[in-house]
Amino acid sequence: MMKKIFIKTFGCQMNEYDSNRIFDTVKKIGFEKTDVLDETDCYLLNTCHIRDKAKEKVYHDIGRIKKNFRSKKKPFVIIAGCVAQAENEEMLKREPYIDLVIGPQAYHKINPKIEEYFEKQKKLEETDFDAEAKFNYLNQIKNSSSKVSSFLTIQEGCDKFCHFCVVPYTRGPEYSRSFNEIIDEAKNLSFNGVKEITLLGQNVNAYNYDNYKLSDLILEIEKIPTIKRIRYTTSHPRDMTDDLIEVYGISKKLMPLVHLPVQSGSDKVLKLMNRKHLISDYIKTYERLKKINSKIEFSSDFIIAYPGEEEKDFNETFQLIKNIKFINSFSFIFSPRPGTAASNLKLIDKEISKERLEKVQKQLFEHQILMNKSLENQEINVLVENKTEENNKFFGRSEYMTSVIFDGNDEDVGQVIKVKINNSNQNTLFGEKVRKSEQKVA
Ligand code: SAM
Ligand code: SF4
Ligand code: F3S
């Protein structure tokens, strides 16, 4: 009989990709997916360790599952992802309800581990770093994603050791997958009906396999006729090489939103963070890209109130935000992570940190609102992803990743169509499909 698995995912897109691939894997040993918690035989929590309270969130979630199954047969409980890697067997000791703890580089071992558990009822832990073995295994299992917009991991891990960040410890050293295997997976996704591919890596632009770079991958994937859009995330400013910048002038399918996390606008803070680049380098990259295509916009991640950030440094971040006019960005107060170089530094006063974050977010929201307003009464290109459940409208995304809700038709799903924007708010554009006869001639 088929067993059922319930997968819950926290964290970044790489975890989302991994969760899908874990499901592709466990299908081979007779699991099917369920969204109904009560009927699950296996509960898998894919965790994130990037900020505060990550560990507590996991134990809280397990507490909830325990309560739910109090009078029923307990499901097999797996903790995967970055908290699993950081905490390993400690988790089995602290919470006996957990049966298997498995790190992100060990997913190729998940089937034998599940089978072993069912044979021996033994608690297990698997947290070796072995990205090569993981991808050698996953390459043999088809990626079954058929969502219009899907992820494809090309690179894992990080060697940069920014002082605030757990990723080098939870995902291990940098590893790039083979060029041909990535292209095969992209072709397979297109065969499934995928129209947009987002290439993923903790340092996606550090991709390097036998001298093939991210720019080579973009240009090769672009040749797949049914793929309409290509994106990549997350990149590091130090790895914005000439070839990647130039590809913006060549590619027809690479979207004009560059997500390039700067973290801070102050050289002093960047140095304290061990980011190993200067603001002047970042601005140079911005100016070069704008020159290649003036339609390009930037988004970023910001860490506010990093230890040592003085008022002057914060003002430099604020000024950079105003100058670059970042859209679609993320900002967080610094959260000390165990085991990182910045874990024990003196924190900035909570009130000051909150004030700074609010100021930054207000400015970022303002850019978003202005950008969205500027699109009102314009016709924009939208990749249609699905029909919305509530009001029979359609959902898609602009070239800049902004959500678009509009009146359309079922056959638009998977197509890039023109939508006339009538209205907008901070996060969403609202409009209607432009019928062929109404379309403006460019
Ligand atoms: N590799 C990317 C880069 O170098 O910019 C970042 C990847 S990280 C998974 C995503 C974001 O989480 C970072 O850009 C940073 O803004 C945020 N982040 C990481 N560690 C953090 C911490 N200790 N406190 C607050 N935010 C953090
Ligand atoms: Fe973390 Fe990105 Fe720095 Fe690597 S480059 S340590 S993933 S913030
Ligand atoms: Fe979180 Fe791990 Fe991604 S810590 S952000 S799930 S790489």
Provide tags for this entry:
442 residues, alpha/beta, Rossmann fold, pyruvate-formate lyase- activating enzyme, OB fold (Dihydrolipoamide Acetyltransferase, E2P), 3 domains, 6-stranded parallel beta sheet, 5-stranded mixed beta barrel, 14 helices, 22% strand, binds S-adenosylmethionine, binds iron/sulfur cluster, binds FE3-S4 cluster
Describe the fold and architecture.
The protein is α/β, with parallel strands linked by helices and 442 residues long. It folds into three domains: 3-131, Rossmann fold, CATH 3.40.50; 133-374, tm_1862 like domain (pyruvate-formate lyase- activating enzyme, Alpha-Beta Horseshoe), CATH 3.80.30; 379-438, Nucleic acid-binding proteins (OB fold (Dihydrolipoamide Acetyltransferase, E2P)), CATH 2.40.50. It is built from 14 helices and 22 strands. The protein has helices at 13-26, 54-68, 81-87, 89-94, 110-120, 131-138, 167-170, 179-192, 214-221, 242-250, 267-273, 279-292, 311-324, 350-374, and strands at 3-9, 31-33, 42-47, 76-80, 100-102, 124-126, 149-153, 155-156, 175-176, 196-200, 208-209, 212-213, 229-233, 257-259, 297-299, 301-304, 330-333, 379-387, 394-397, 403-407, 416-424, 428-433. The strands form seven sheets. Strands 2-1-3-4-5-6 form a six-stranded parallel beta sheet. Bound molecules: S-adenosylmethionine, iron/sulfur cluster and FE3-S4 cluster. Residues 11-12, 14-15, 48-50, 81-82, 166-167, 170-171, 202 line the site of FE3-S4 cluster (F3S).
